[in-house]
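[#protein-structures] MJ: dropping Lytic murein transglycosylase here for a structure pass
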Amino acid sequence: MRHALLALTCLATPLTAQECGGSIDSFRQGVLAEATAAGLDPQAARDFLNTASIDQSVLNADRAQGVFQLDFVTFSRRLISASRLQNAQVYGDRYDGIFDDIEARFGIPRGVLLAFWAFETDFGQIQGDFNTRDALFTLAHDCRRPELFRPELIAAIELYQRGDFPLNTTGAWAGEIGQVQMLPRDIIENGVDGDGDGHVTLKTSAPDALMSAATLLADLGWVPNQPALQEITVPAGLDWTLTGLDKEMTVDQWRALGVDIRNGAAPAGSLPASVLLPMGRNGPAFFAYPNFRVYFEWNQSLTYVLTAAYFATRINGAPVYDAGNADPGLSGDQMVQLQERLQALGYDVGGADGILGEKTREAVQQEQARRGLPADAWPTLDLLNAL
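AK: finished. structure tokens for Lytic murein transglycosylase:
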């Protein structure tokens, strides 16, 4: 479920994220010491760790996330199909009572959970075949993001000690487990027995998975009965420097500038919103409300979370977005060049990875404004050439 931004738990100690790389045996002993210091049973930790191994296929998957270089229209059309929409209706009906309970308790529309359920595992059908223990061991040992995965490895040991983590558990390459792909710490903190059988079984029980996911979203700050995303129309003369997720105004203030809801009812005029233009002023346009930011606790890719939030609106009855006629974007290699040139000018773009993330968008918008270009945060070849 959450692939990048993970909250620390009480299991994290001062050793967390400080030790990575080096010999496997030394790393294994360090994790054992940390688990023991966290109060876990040393024998359980040894049993868990003794046969854990590095999985090169996990590292390969971690470095091969080129799908996030796709633009929003391409990415969303690839992920959202007629069959997925139809299956969302089927599974929504099948677990109607669970979704009604979730909406009553948490104020989370069913489309939100159905969208993630669809994208993560195709409604539980494809949950991943990576050995979860080895995936977490590998990513904690790797020095790219140990601060994220070492605490997850310790949490997995706790689940194993409880009897809730067989060593042959499989899931996604990044260590997520079950139908909505939850990481071990999230399972410990937010796992819910949704079907009343006395166990939290996220791989085989849809009620457990859905109730656990809803509890996690609530814990991450979901505001009940508020939208996350809504399609809008924007006037041609809008001040584009006002757009972007780093700026907010109320719905009423935006509407006074000519921004309007494309379909459906407008929320309370006092609700804060950002105008999100994923492909610039000539492409699709959305209001991103406070709940939209919760999605980034699930996944840090703007393209992914925007697609998930949009798919949720489709499931809940919204029409297909107006794709507009966006200016041609940059290839992956060109995006890397752009990011390198922005870095040379002193901008923090979060690394030259070829992915148009929020930091790159902010830098692009600032440079567009400085050069007198339409500051809609959509990088084009004209801007690359100008740099």
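MJ: nice. The radius of gyration is 22 Å.
AK: one more thing. The longest strand covers residues 229-233.
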